[in-house]
């Protein structure tokens, strides 16, 4: 029994070292995809849907500052200040979701920072388990320890999902507005950020009442959004 426990601990440690090595790699080299992209590609293939993954790496400098501010304003207002995890935001989201469930409503709120979302997208599945959440936290702290905030934001903007099979700023800008990511306006950027909580649903109609209302809120918050140096 002792030997089995020791073996299990060794396997877990080796896996963490493996992940740490990949975090180091991505701090310098750009990913050709992500675990979440591969999972979605498999899902679409299983459904026999003619949807291909749209993804094109775009350097930080070639992404509109408006989109950078919109994403921070929408998803992580204290991005440049925290160390990867906002525990109070997680507690508030937990309480909010409990109230929503008790009221029979479907809308949920996430308490994850941009770094946590990046950790999940790059390395993990979409499963909602305590083990996966724990691993997400470990990877989050690895990322924050190694990468600059600018690099974290660059990676996030390139791998986040913006719709069914649509990943990254360039693919989203092309799909929804037929422009390059560098040319996104404040209005357009705010609408893209508005669909992030559930892009496969909200991305179907950028003219919906929710997206328009959320977009206006994000536009107002963008004025106080702070970009990493």
UniProtKB/TrEMBL annotation:
Biological process terms in GO annotation: cell wall organization; peptidoglycan biosynthetic process; regulation of cell shape
Stored InterPro entries: Glyco_trans_51, Lysozyme-like_dom_sf, PBP_transglycosylase, Pep_trsgly
Topology class, membrane: Single-pass membrane protein
Keyword line: Cell inner membrane, Cell membrane, Cell shape, Cell wall biogenesis/degradation, Glycosyltransferase, Membrane, Peptidoglycan synthesis, Transferase, Transmembrane, Transmembrane helix
Pathway as given in its UniProt record: Cell wall biogenesis; peptidoglycan biosynthesis
Domain Glycosyl transferase family positions: 54-222
Transmembrane domains' residue ranges: 6-28
Pfam families: Transgly
NCBIfam families in alphabetical order: mono_pep_trsgly
Protein name: Biosynthetic peptidoglycan transglycosylase
EC code: 2.4.99.28
Location relative to the cell: Cell inner membrane
Record organism: Advenella kashmirensis
Family from the record: Belongs to the glycosyltransferase 51 family.
GO CC aspect terms: peptidoglycan-based cell wall; plasma membrane
Reaction catalysis annotation: [GlcNAc-(1->4)-Mur2Ac(oyl-L-Ala-gamma-D-Glu-L-Lys-D-Ala-D-Ala)](n)-di-trans,octa-cis-undecaprenyl diphosphate + beta-D-GlcNAc-(1->4)-Mur2Ac(oyl-L-Ala-gamma-D-Glu-L-Lys-D-Ala-D-Ala)-di-trans,octa-cis-undecaprenyl diphosphate = [GlcNAc-(1->4)-Mur2Ac(oyl-L-Ala-gamma-D-Glu-L-Lys-D-Ala-D-Ala)](n+1)-di-trans,octa-cis-undecaprenyl diphosphate + di-trans,octa-cis-undecaprenyl diphosphate + H(+)
Example GO molecular function: peptidoglycan glycosyltransferase activity
Chain's role: Peptidoglycan polymerase that catalyzes glycan chain elongation from lipid-linked precursors.
Superkingdom of the organism of origin: Bacteria
